[in-house]
Model the fold of this input.
Amino acid sequence: MAVKRRKYPSKLLLFGEYGILLGLDALAIPFSDYSGKLQLTNTNEDKHLRGIYAHLKKISQSLPFKVDLDKLNYDIKNGLAFNSNIPLNYGLGSSGALVASIFDNYFQPSSKREKTDLRALKTTLALIESHFHGVSSGIDPLVSLLRASILVRKSGSLMQLEKSIIPNRGKLRFFLLDSELPGKTGDLVTQFMGKMNEDGFSETFRSAYQQYSNGAIKNLLNKKLEAFLLCFKGLSEFQLAHMSELIPANIMNHFKDGIESKQYFLKICGSGGGGFFLGITSDVNAVEQAIDAPLIFL
Done:
């Protein structure tokens, strides 16, 4: 059986960065500008895929899905490779796309119900991706596998969103600003969790994210764009005031200028520190004139 020729997209965590660690809502979407796919080539064995194979061999008995290790081993020996343009350390889920491709090609559910069970899928994908990160939420590969937006509720429940949640062109427009710097998610998460032990910050963070991040998700899904923009603005102001260590120097002035001019607003996208920053505007021309850097409009 040949490997599937489909591409596995990267992901953007629109809302819920850091809040998801504390059980708050999060919203992730597929981002097809960057993607990867499995291919059989004439190259030597791929060390990353060989590492995944060794990992799966250890944990296969504990997985709720059946994996064809013989087929995976055979394909790796015959030049299986994951060709991707997803930048590393950008918070776009490069390992998640790889994991999604392996799952889609070499795993089989034991029942039709299991195939659509988001919790079972997420659990399995998290166990596979733990090879790269030690601990994984499973959200990145789930978004890539389904090529669909995923809403993670405070309760831990998952919802697959069938329709695009990006506002129509001509109204509000999302955009990405590239810091051109890699992020260090592990270090930043450790730093954040340490900050949560500081007097006052934990309560302030939870309150702000409950109001602004969860509010942004709710209003975006309900297409209440004016209320959504106010939440986005509040989140931008909060991050500038209380999480400025996650905003690189080359992004800081843009962050401040957006809030002061009210022509656009920026927020951290993922763990911050580098990678992309997420913006929102109702005036594309004004943003392009204000920010002298390449922008990607969603």
Summary: Residues 8-161 form a domain with the Ribosomal Protein S5; domain 2 fold (CATH 3.30.230.10). The longest strand covers residues 26-40. The CA atoms of residues 20 and 26 lie 6 Å apart. The chain has two domains: 8-161, 173-297.
